[in-house]
């Protein structure tokens, strides 16, 4: 265990132990070394280890018996984070599943999609079924440039748009491009999406966590980190729900301009904003330095694997070359159907329908919390498909609460799962339970039921 130096060592020791228990590196029932042994192993004072054991025992991670020793407690809880993070195919979407990441799959517009598919099958010439342009179908790239300009304030000509297999592949391609340009590290948000870190790692880039505060990513910390690229979610930070302030957006764009850096913008749920007009994409502020990424995963369905990136032409050319060597391009029929869907207005209709339903579901979440857990707070609700729920103090400590939630059959993810730093940069160190709650996939009735079960 690396503890570093100075006054933070005790905290780092506690965080390291907590994490080891949480991810199962220290399994339930494991006896820990005596405080004297561990202190000698780590080269720290015995008091520091005793304090750490006492703190984690109070929090429910450890159990101890006077004079007999200290053991890892049975921190039984909802399904452990899977290697695939929030986005892997799994058992999600059950009636009492409040974890984030999914839209309502029952809202997929099957009839309109089938009609578009029939039109496309009639219209496509034989030659269209050959190997596609790895940058994407020209009709779709043009339709996306228009859509993203109109809805998200993205500044793009069609030749700056590239079709990808979701945001996930866009990030993989961009990671490979940055790596080929000599970069070995990239900044990510803390708290942030574990998926970003995993995708970057697969391309050989090490993620450097940078704290997020109430205004967004700390650009001062970013500048001090010595990286040349950053992956960010400025319109609705994942998972905190913060929308970057205008000053922070300008500072981030300024950082990229000053150091010739690259910002990868993940606009994973930018289509959904409830209380006012959507915040435009950061890319519009600095198109030369920001690569915008988005997908149909939230608006239509993640199973389509349809996404896009928009960036400077040299980046698009390099990313397309990577895609060519990866899969020779995206399915022509799916691209053509999406292009038809966009051109016919069906996509806008789908967005309007989802927006209306998801707003009602968000309101149902806020209402259920006010009713069943008075004193709780909800934040990050202006946009997207999830919110941060902070429960009143009486629900802590977190491990005991999560164990009780699992016993009640409610699947939840705590905000702490998305943090890399031992000390929360977002003020979440007051002992209150903070959950990242996805609400879009549940009906208002199901939300009320799950919340009632959860807080009982
Ligand atoms: C923050 C974030 N980034 C990326 C993704 C993955 O998106 P896609 O399905 O477009 O690959 C998700 C999916 O939920 C997400 O929440």
TrEMBL record:
It comes from the Bacteria. One of its GO terms (molecular function) is DNA-binding transcription factor activity. Residues 7-75 form the HTH gntR-type domain. Pfam families: Aminotran_1_2 (PF00155), GntR (PF00392). Keywords: Aminotransferase, DNA-binding, Pyridoxal phosphate, Transcription, Transcription regulation, Transferase. The keyword Protein biosynthesis does not apply. Residues 74-96 are annotated as: Disordered. The keyword Membrane does not apply. In the C-terminal section; belongs to the class-I pyridoxal-phosphate-dependent aminotransferase family. This is GntR family transcriptional regulator / MocR family aminotransferase. It comes from Actinacidiphila paucisporea.
């Amino acid at each position: 265990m690396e503890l570093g130096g100075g006054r933070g060592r005790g905290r780092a020791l506690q965080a390291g132990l907590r994490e080891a228990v949480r991810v199962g590196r220290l399994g339930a029932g494991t006896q820990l070394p005596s405080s004297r042994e561990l202190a000698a192993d780590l080269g720290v004072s015995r008091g520091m280890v005793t304090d750490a054991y006492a703190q984690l025992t109070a929090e429910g991670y450890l159990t101890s018996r006077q004079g007999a020793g200290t053991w890892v407690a049975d921190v039984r809880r909802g399904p452990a984070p899977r290697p695939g993070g929030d986005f892997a195919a799994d058992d999600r979407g059950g009636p009492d599943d409040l974890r984030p990441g999914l839209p309502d799959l029952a809202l997929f517009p099957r009839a309109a999609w089938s009609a578009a598919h029939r039109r496309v099958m009639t219209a496509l010439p034989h030659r269209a079924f050959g190997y596609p342009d790895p940058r994407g179908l020209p009709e779709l790239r043009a339709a996306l440039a228009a859509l993203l300009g109109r809805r998200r304030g993205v500044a793009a000509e069609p030749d700056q748009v590239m079709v990808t297999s979701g945001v996930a592949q866009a990030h993989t391609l961009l990671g490979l491009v940055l790596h080929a340009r000599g970069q070995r590290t990239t900044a990510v948000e803390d708290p942030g999406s574990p998926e970003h870190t995993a995708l970057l790692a697969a391309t050989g880039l090490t993620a450097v966590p940078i704290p997020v505060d109430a205004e967004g990513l700390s650009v001062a910390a970013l500048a001090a980190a010595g990286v040349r690229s950053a992956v960010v979610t400025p319109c609705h930070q994942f998972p905190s729900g913060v929308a970057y302030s205008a000053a922070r957006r300008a500072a981030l764009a300024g950082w990229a301009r000053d150091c010739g850096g690259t910002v990868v913008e993940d606009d994973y749920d930018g289509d959904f904003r409830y209380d006012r007009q959507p915040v435009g994409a950061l890319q519009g502020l600095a198109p030369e330095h920001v690569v915008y990424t988005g997908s149909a995963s939230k608006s239509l369905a993640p199973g389509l694997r349809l996404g896009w990136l928009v960036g400077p032409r040299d980046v698009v050319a390099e990313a397309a070359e990577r895609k060519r060597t990866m899969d020779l391009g995206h399915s022509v029929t799916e691209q053509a159907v999406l292009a038809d869907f966009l051109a016919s207005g069906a996509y806008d209709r789908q967005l309007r329908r989802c927006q209306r339903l998801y707003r009602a579901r968000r309101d149902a979440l806020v209402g259920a919390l006010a009713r069943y857990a008075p004193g709780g707070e909800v934040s990050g609700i202006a946009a997207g498909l999830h919110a941060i729920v902070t429960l009143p103090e009486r629900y802590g400590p977190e491990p005991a609460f999560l164990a009780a939630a699992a016993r009640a059959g409610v699947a939840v993810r705590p905000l702490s799962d998305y943090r890399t730093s031992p000390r929360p940069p977002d003020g979440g160190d007051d002992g209150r339970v903070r959950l990242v709650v996805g609400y879009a996939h549940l009906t208002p009735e199901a939300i009320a039921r799950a919340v009632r079960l959860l807080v009982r």
